[in-house]
Design goal:
heterotrimer, A mainly alpha, B mainly alpha, C alpha/beta, A: mainly alpha, MetI-like fold, 16 helices, B: 3 strands, binds adenosine-5'-diphosphate, binds magnesium ion
């Protein structure tokens, strides 16, 4: 709250700077605006940028690092016997201190921690005062500095435009930094994981049971971090999903773009897109509450043993979720096939379905393959449906009626709740994340390339 | 080759060949077309089944079973020393009042076991309700009031017909409890009323007390952070890439990057949030600020792509016109192109926000999955969001949470529907044909 | 405003053609009577009646947008594929009304081949392009027969020599002129009685154009050909009869020699002498 007020103050000051700069610039030429290099508004923006931008940048950096700096100061002020704790225990202590500082008291905290919490709050308090002082002085300094520079010859517009452009360039690098951030965060922790568990055990192991590692003596017990059963589970569920989504999605797209009348399309297309807009947690609930029990009962009726967390249920519902994804991408792709090819085929006496099967689909194939790959990537990375409807225990099986588990399910189970830092259990989640990221990255790049090439061919 | 007699002859057999195959070909055509319709019908059927089951399961939660109690606010229980002190009032044994009332209603109940059963038909929230009444109006002490208190969730389920009394397996309702409920029904002392608590309460372990307001506020904060970060960032990136950026490897990389990010699984963004925002920058766990940051990174590609499409649809002539009258490139973009592209950008943003509103997985990674009773008061407070609340409730074993989950889904879908409707209206209204 | 009114008046006008649109019965391959075509409100073909002679080249000429393509596409019912298009009147092929209920458009289009303005080979091999028609219609009982059909068609289209070693190359890898001849080979692979060509040379260079014109001259021995062209010279070179269209009206029709030497209608004169269009 108090930070919002600070930000708001900075913005107000910038606004003041804008008006001050604007009126000052026209005063310097006694109102004869034509003598100014730029319109007065640009001098206003110039002042406002000088006033607000540096202050906000400092504020942002400060906020980003404040808590880690404060924590480390608090830690260094702790008695040596606490400081000598392992990283893991230390993080629990820090957690307690922070909770105490926020007024969350559990049980009867000891005095050292209470003192530390108070220290923590004191530091935050002084830190905030210091921050206010720093930010305000930067604001005022920027304001005064830029006001003094206003003169008719100053190229205010160009300077403002350059600044804006630099800001825009910075914005556009956020996407790059996101990717780098993703790679670094999963790589970093994965490397630490592979220091404890050999990478070959991870990649080629056929047993996955991370719980074992909770017991100190079994950390890294061979075979408990084998990723193969997760891979097969993920692939099985995704395959079931694709078996549902590809035929239905593709046939709907074909019908929509080749047969359906305009009126039909305007009604049905948005309805199909509703399927895409439903949150995955809703599908998960649907799978766990309706589809899985339904399949189990159906199975017991015909004498099949269907698990209540069967891969089939999760896969079917995931397939439903992906239908609109396949259909809208394929629709685009099919529409991009030039009409002249259809004309050529119809003109020689082919029926419409012959034209579609023998001409339109082969021509659209690269694009369709691209969209299917994107859909596969989405199926592999889909989380909520499998978390709610698939199993937790890894099983190496080819039977879709059994429960299997996936990468995403394991990531969630490993990271939900209190985590122990540096335990292979926590780090394994990041290693799984790395695998997931690499698989989907490859799929995406191939798919995007295919679709792009295809577009270029017909545009 | 130019012997017309032969040609004519072969042309006759040729037509016969074609005719012979026609029936089969038209049959195939029909099958193909039927397949297409079937696919669409299946998809729409799934949609219908989904909506019907959710509605069927969920609409009941908008009502809640209440039991009428004649509570005597006995001064000797609440405030024996007549201090009127708020502390004393708040510490008083209101549960005891409820129990006493129940005993009075069913004097035939004598055994301890039976009494325990009797007490369990009223929600533990009843005591809080009485406390609040007294705290708000201490004048109630010493009076007798008719109060409607929430029934226990199992009784609620019984009244709504989702479970049956004494049934094997489901048997959470014992025969004696069912008998009491029947008495209550005969006395018109039990009825279903609109469930305000569902819309105003935070989470609770007791289904009859659980509400979505806490999660809704959390969602609101998260959306707020996402919107104020992703919209300017997305628009600025789109404008730069579309209007200013030179075509070179660097912008190509950015472009590939954005397209790829749009297809990265959302849970990976959660891992990023955990590693960077929580562990590296030390931002608080479970806080809307972190959720907002993660969802910003996730929504950004959607907004950028939509904004670029919107910019592309502004005709070149408008840019040229502006440049022609001596505007700088920046002025032409800011004053002429951007206003025209803005509706499209807003539409893309709303769609991105709708997706963010329904997103669950990355928020699990950053701890927004904690059990939080209090309504969050700011973006640094611990909070959860609607979809995560749905996930949490879906995981709870109580039958009554099935209803609550479905109802929360209905609310979430209603929000999404409204957002998408706004996007559609916006698109219709500002759709330009140049 | 006045000018606008005039223009609109002119657009809606229905003109009776000069020249003789009708032929002796034994020469007639196609006879069109009172054909009207609408695209929603747009009256694209206005009450056109004309006969097309067998084993001749008939040219449709006229300024762009006058309805030549529309009229051509009525003859093999390609306009059925355009939802907004509505057709009135009758068109008879060998005396049978092709818009009759029991006429199968698939069968009809097997009898009437079509070549389009832009070469549009399928993104398949040269062989598959030509084999497509015979295959879907079930004209070849085995591979050998199919091979033979493909080779004869390519030979007739004058393309075989150029591609005989590369039959498995994609059709799209050929040059523009070769692609168009491939499309012609594809059209004649099902041995149609009639070939419709919609500006087949407009996307080609002069040498490729000359090749196609030569080809047409040869094909005329066995096929009836209708060609839409905006090039007067081409019409004069390849056709025996010419029909001149203007704003959906058939203005003048007659022997090519006569029309070009001695046009009767003012509009035809203007168009042919290049004063208009
Ligand atoms: N698919 C179509 N939908 C609507 N109107 C069309 C379509 N094709 C052609 N037209 C209209 O019909 C008229 C004749 O067009 P067209 O037959 O293509 O002329 P030409 O081939 O002589 O240049 C034009 O006014 C054109 O706008
Ligand atoms: Mg044309």
């Amino acid at each position: 709250m108090k930070y919002s007020i600070l930000i708001f103050t900075v913005i107000i000051l910038s606004a003041v700077g804008f008006y001050a700069g604007r009126s000052r610039s026209s005063k310097t030429v006694n109102g004869e605006i034509r003598k100014l290099h730029s319109l007065p508004g640009y001098y206003g923006f110039y002042v406002a940028l000088w006033c607000g931008l540096p202050a906000l940048i400092v504020l942002g950096i400060w906020l980003a690092f404040q808590s880690s700096v404060v924590t480390s100061i608090v830690v260094s002020g702790l008695p040596p016997e606490i400081q000598s704790l392992s990283d893991e225990e230390m993080s629990l202590v820090i957690n307690d201190i922070v909770n105490l500082a926020h007024g969350i008291v559990v049980g009867r905290p000891d005095n050292v921690l209470l003192a530390a919490a108070e220290h923590y709050n004191r530091l935050l308090g002084t830190g905030f005062l210091a921050l206010v002082a720093v930010v305000m002085s930067i604001c005022i300094a920027g304001l005064g500095f830029s006001m003094r520079y206003i003169n008719p010859a100053m190229r205010a517009r160009i300077k403002v435009e350059q600044t804006v452009q630099v800001l825009m360039i910075l914005c556009s690098t956020v996407a790059i930094f996101t990717t780098i951030g993703i790679m670094l965060s999963v790589l970093f922790e994965s490397v630490r994981f592979f220091n404890q568990i050999p990478i070959t055990d991870f990649l080629f192991g056929v047993h996955w049971s991370p719980q074992i590692a909770i017991r100190e003596d079994q950390v890294g017990a061979s075979g408990s971090f084998g990723v193969i059963p997760l891979l097969t589970g993920t692939l099985m569920i995704s395959a079931i999903a694709m078996l549902v989504a590809v035929p239905i999605g593709l046939m709907s797209a074909i019908y929509m773009s080749e047969y359906a009348a305009e009126g039909f399309r305007t009604v049905v297309k948005p309805l199909l897109e509703v399927l895409a807009g439903i949150p995955t947690v809703v599908y998960g609930f649907f799978a766990a509450l309706i589809v899985a029990p339904f399949l189990r009962d159906l199975g017991s009726k015909i004498g099949l043993d269907v698990s209540s967390e069967s891969a089939l249920a999760a896969g079917l519902v995931m397939g439903i979720m992906i239908i609109p994804f396949v259909s809208s991408l394929s629709d685009d792709v099919i529409n991009a096939v030039p009409q002249s090819l259809r004309d050529a085929s119809l003109g020689i006496g082919a029926t419409q379905s012959e034209t579609i099967v023998h001409v339109v689909l082969p021509a659209a194939l690269p694009g369709i393959v691209g969209s299917i790959l994107l859909a596969v990537s989405r199926a592999i990375g889909e989380t909520m449906i499998v978390v709610m409807a698939a199993g937790l225990t890894a099983r190496l099986t080819a039977n879709p009626l059994e429960a299997v588990t996936t990468f995403t399910v394991q990531i969630v189970t490993l990271l939900i709740g209190d985590q122990e830092f540096d335990s292979p259990k926590t780090l394994a989640a990041f290693a799984l994340g790395l695998v997931l990221f690499i698989i989907t990255l490859c799929l995406n790049i191939i798919a995007l390339y295919a679709v792009r090439r295809y577009r270029e061919e017909y545009e | 080759m130019n012997n017309s007699g032969i040609r004519h002859d072969s042309s006759g057999t040729r037509l016969q060949l074609i005719k012979a195959g026609l029936k089969r070909r038209y049959a195939k055509e029909k099958i193909f077309k039927t397949l297409g319709i079937t696919a669409i019908v299946i998809a729409l059927m799934m949609l219908t089944v989904l909506f019907i089951t959710i509605t069927k399961n969920g609409y009941g939660a908008f009502q809640q079973t209440f039991i009428r109690l004649k509570i005597t606010f006995d001064a000797s229980v609440i405030d024996p020393e007549r201090t009127g002190d708020a502390d004393v009032l708040s510490q008083a044994d209101y549960g005891g009042l409820v129990k006493k009332t129940l005993r009075d209603m069913f004097p035939e109940v004598k055994k301890r076991r039976e009494k325990r059963d009797l007490y369990s038909i009223v929600s533990s929230g009843a005591a809080f309700q009485l406390r609040k009444m007294v705290m708000d109006d201490p004048g109630l002490i010493g009076t007798t009031q008719t109060v409607w208190v929430p029934a226990d969730d199992d009784i609620d389920m019984l009244i709504k017909g989702h479970i049956k009394a004494g049934e094997e397996g489901t048997g959470r309702i014992k025969a004696n409890e069912a008998a009491w409920v029947n008495t209550l029904i005969e006395n018109r002392a039990i009825e279903k009323r609109f469930n305000f608590a569902f819309f105003t309460g935070g989470d609770s372990r007791e289904p009859e007390l659980a509400g979505i307001w806490g999660a809704a506020v959390g969602s609101l904060y998260v959306m707020f952070v996402t919107l104020i970060l992703s919209f300017p960032l997305g628009v600025a990136t789109a404008v730069y890439l579309e209007e200013f950026a030179p075509k070179n490897i660097w912008t190509d990389i950015i472009e590939v990057n954005i397209n790829n990010l749009a297809a990265v699984p959302s849970i990976v963004f959660g891992l990023l949030g955990l590693a960077v925002f929580l562990n590296f920058f030390g931002l608080p766990r479970s806080a809307p600020i972190v959720g907002g940051l993660v969802l910003t990174l996730m929504t950004l590609p959607t907004i950028i792509i939509a904004s670029r499409v919107s910019l592309q649809s502004v005709p070149l002539s408008i840019r040229e016109g502006a440049l022609g009258v001596g505007a700088s490139k920046m002025q032409s973009v800011m004053h002429h192109v951007l206003p025209l592209a803005l509706p499209g950008m807003l539409t893309g943003t709303i769609i991105g926000m709708a997706r963010a509103l329904g997103e669950t997985a990355p928020l699990l990674m950053i701890g927004m999955v904690a059990f939080i009773v209090d309504i969050p008061a700011g973006i640094f407070d611990k909070a959860t969001v609607l979809p995560v609340q749905i996930y949490l409730w879906a995981d709870s074993p109580e039958r009554a949470f099935v209803e609550k989950t479905s109802a929360a889904i209905i609310v979430l879908l209603a929000f999404l529907l409204i957002m998408n409707a706004i996007a559609v209206v916006l698109r219709r209204k500002f759709e330009q044909r140049w | 405003m006045q000018l606008m009114d005039n223009l609109i008046m002119k657009r809606d006008e229905i003109i009776k053609p000069v020249g003789n649109p009708f032929l002796n019965e034994e020469r007639v391959k196609i006879s069109c009577r009172n054909v009207n075509v609408y695209y929603e409100e747009n009256h694209a073909i206005k009450n056109v009646s004309v006969d097309i002679a067998e084993k001749e080249v008939t040219a449709f000429i006229g300024p762009s947008g006058c309805g030549k393509s529309t009229f051509l596409r009525c003859i093999n019912r390609m306009n059925d594929t355009i939802r907004t298009c509505r057709i009135e009147g009758e068109i008879r092929l060998d005396g049978e009304n092709i818009y009759d209920k029991n006429v199968d458009p698939v069968l009809l289009r097997a009898r009437i081949g079509m070549v389009f303005q832009k070469p549009n080979p399928f993104p398949k091999s040269i062989y598959q392009n030509v084999a497509y028609g015979p295959r879907i219609h079930g004209l070849a009982r085995n591979k050998a027969e199919l091979d033979e059909i493909v080779i004869t068609s390519l030979e007739k289209a004058g393309l075989f020599k150029e591609v005989k070693d590369n039959l498995d190359h994609p059709g799209t890898s050929l040059s523009g002129g070769q692609q168009q001849r491939l499309c012609i080979a594809r059209a004649i692979s099902v041995q149609p009685e009639l070939i419709l060509m919609d500006e087949p040379c407009s996307a080609l260079d002069p040498i490729a154009t000359a090749k196609i014109e030569e080809l047409m001259d040869e094909l005329r021995q066995n096929y009836t050909i209708i060609i839409v062209t905006h090039s007067m010279q081409q019409a004069a070179r390849v056709s025996q009869r010419t029909a001149f269209f203007h704003l959906g009206n058939l203005i003048e029709v007659g022997d090519t020699n006569e029309i070009f030497v001695n046009p009767e209608h003012k509009l035809t004169q203007d168009y042919i002498t290049g004063r208009y269009g």
